[in-house]
């Protein structure tokens, strides 16, 4: 399968560099380049991109608002957003993830790592760099949020076990090994947790687990 990638950044030089990098991968193709968040949303709808590589700071409509629009559009349910930011301590990172982004990387990430990130997000997995994960957790714990904290009461004990390991960054295979389950069973549990918590992907499960107090940075 060829991954259809949409690049959104207000700097033409950056977009051009990313376009050359993505085009160099045999399993990817660039379907559009957007200079504003509004253009990114329109192109995501028109081009049916698999992954939108989204800069946070853009004119007209910023990356957070654009991500919110994409995530809220039922017709774009299969479109994943990978946020790129200059600093992984950016105050807007948590907001972007809450808006529906499937992960984020800092812009000085090595080219091969960016391509791997696009593949990971396109496959439906979430992606957070270790330093970025620490920043997200810090934001969850310290920044007031007017939204209600997630309720985990609908989850079974086994689903709670799985959610804890998801929040710690384990893959399905690693969770299966830890809990002595089959990978298929773990995948089923994750799917049910996503449905019960109305979460878009694993990134939102991580945030939900920390917001609910199920896990803390020390656990």
What does it look like?
The chain is α/β, with parallel strands linked by helices. Helix content is 49%, strand content 14%. It is built from ten helices and six strands; from the N terminus they run βαβαβαβαβαβααααα. A six-stranded parallel sheet has the order 2-1-3-4-5-6, with helices on both faces. β3, α3 and β4 form a beta-alpha-beta unit. The longest helix is centred in the C-terminal third of the chain and has 14 residues. The radius of gyration is 17 Å and the shape is globular.
Query: How are strands sequenced across the largest beta sheet?
Result: 2-1-3-4-5-6
**Helix amount, in percent?**
40-55%
User: What is the string of helix and strand elements?
Assistant: EHEHEHEHEHEHHHHH
Count of DSSP-assigned helices: 10
Radius of gyration: 17 Å
Give a brief rundown of this model.
The protein has 219 residues and is an alpha/beta fold. 49% of the residues lie in helices and 14% in strands.
List the helices and strands and how they pair.
Blueprint: E1 3-8, H1 12-23, E2 28-34, H2 37-47, E3 51-55, H3 63-72, E4 80-85, H4 93-99, E5 103-106, H5 111-122, E6 127-128, H6 130-142, H7 157-167, H8 172-179, H9 183-196, H10 202-211
Parallel strand pairs: 1-2, 1-3, 3-4, 4-5, 5-6
